[in-house]
Amino acid sequence: MEMPEQPRSRRQTRAAILTHLLQSGGSFRPPLAKAVRLSEASLSRILFDLKAEGLIEEVRRPAPYVGGPTGLVSLDATVALAALELTGQWLSVGVGGLSGELHYTERVPLPKRPTVETVGRVFGEALALLRDWTRRRRIRLAQIGVTVPGLGRLSEFGNPIIPCDVGRISDMSGELFADVPVAFTNSVVAHATFHRCRTESYPFSGAHLFVFVGQGVAGTWMDDPIEDDALQPVELGHMVFGTEGPRCRCGHHGCVEAYTSLPALAELLGLREAELLAFGNEWVTAVPLTSRVRQELRQRLFRLGLAIGNTLNVKPCRGVAISGWPSLLDEEDRKAVIDGIDACLLGGRKLAQVSLAFVPPSNGNDPQAALAFAAFCLARCGGMAAASTEAA
Ligand SMILES: [Zn+2]
Q1: CATH number assigned to the domain covering 80-190+366-391
Q2: Could you tell me what percentage of the chain is helix, strand and coil, using 3-state DSSP and rounding each to the nearest 5?
Q3: What is the distance in A from the centroid of ligand 1 to the CA of 273?
Q4: Residue 59's pLDDT is what?
Q5: How far is the CA of 250 from the centre of ligand 1 (A)?
Q6: Which is an annotated Pfam family here (predicted)?
Q7: Ligand 1 centroid from CA 392, angstroms
């Protein structure tokens, strides 16, 4: 049975197709038509345009459907996107494609105590590198994605994590790359996008909460990618669990972030933060845990669970994906997170029908998250560049 076509604008229909291809990595025509609720004839007309514009490609291939060979549709590998990802130590800059392959990356170090001035200069340097690299190869960028830790609600009072003036950076980008749209987002939103688009068999397709445990602890509400509020940052890391607790970088004491971020984990393990980062994901086997440390670790994970449960009490949803160091622990240790959520939700997780999934950590893969975000921006506007600056 054919699904009825929904009234949507041309941009929305194109966005539905492109975001579906981005999240699936490619699709045959029949399931693509079904997923975006179009007849195959309508889909065919739009694919014709998208192909002519160089946004998609199609390979004739035998498909497991009645009716013989059909086209495997995927995003065009020649589309070039730029990614700028600000981390605590450096600004990562790169050029890559819609499927996540990187053709160029460079890191410009940040000073020890960054200011709006010096961070602005680092962005200037990175954008100049980007311009030189693309100009030498006559590459035209389709979209620039920039990620900044802590960007969002708190930013109007000055970014509490890394000082930076987004308006000024946007102007610099406009001077060097006229007509290339640039979009800024919170790092956590970008990591959520990265997982949604690049994690094989990502556990959720509908609305869910993505929680990222890295340098900071934060979440993103994720919804249908073509909705205006498809990605909404959630500051769940600053839920306070006791004003006697450790000082948080936000200025308060006892935030869940102050107990469970990577810097807090390093301190608990008796390592400097750089040492912990140098281990990468191997710390979980390389660093032996005493029973006291393991006990404390579980208590902190329980608090993380409480923070997630509280967030779900405010805005219920059926799925939670957790990425970050807790995903590396064995089931027994991770259970503390689940117990925390259970203790907090009225009637527990089962009654609230919340399913939980741990996805691998993605910190340290810069600028992959910014690249995924740039791809998402291009797909979400249907490949039709809108205003030159938009914040997500
Ligand atoms: Zn805080």
Answers
A1: 3.30.420.40
A2: 45, 20, 35
A3: 18
A4: 86
A5: 4
A6: ROK
A7: 22
CA–centroid distance, residue 305 to ligand 1 (Å): 16
User: 26 C-alpha to center of ligand 1: Å?
Assistant: 40
CATH classification for the domain delimited by 203-359, as one of 2.40.50.140, 3.30.420.40, 3.40.50.150, 3.40.630.10: 3.30.420.40
Judged against a pLDDT cut of 80, whether residue 68 lies above it is answered with no
* Separation of alpha carbons 128 and 193, rounded Å: 26
Ligand 1 centroid, distance to 268 Cα (angstroms): 18
| Residue extent(s) of CATH 1.10.10.10 domains in the chain | 10-75
Every domain of the chain with CATH number 3.30.420.40 lies at: 80-190+366-391, 203-359
- pLDDT, one tens digit per residue, over 176-215 is 999 999 999 999 999 999 999 998 889 998 899 999 999 8
% of the chain surpassing 90 pLDDT: 71
The CATH number of the domain covering residues in 10-75? 1.10.10.10
**Which alpha helices (DSSP H) does the chain contain, by range?**
10-24, 29-35, 40-52, 116-136, 166-176, 187-198, 256-260, 262-269, 273-279, 283-286, 291-314, 331-344, 348-351, 368-380
CA–centroid distance, 341 to ligand 1, in Å, is 20
pLDDT tens, residue by residue, 321-376: 999 999 999 999 999 999 999 999 877 788 778 899 999 998 889 999 999 999 99
pLDDT at residue 391, as a whole number: 43
* CA 326 to ligand 1 centroid distance, Å: 19
pLDDT in tens, 241-283: 888 999 998 889 999 999 999 999 999 999 999 899 899 899 9
Among 390, 368, 386, CA closest to 97: 368
Distance 238 CA to ligand 1 centre (A): 4
What is the distance in A from the centroid of ligand 1 to the CA of 237? 6
How remote is the CA of residue 161 from the centroid of ligand 1, in Å?
11
Cα 212 to middle of ligand 1, angstroms: 15
Q: Over the range 335-355, which residues count as b (16 or more CB within 10 Å of their CB) and which as e?
A: bbbbbbbbebbeeebeebebe
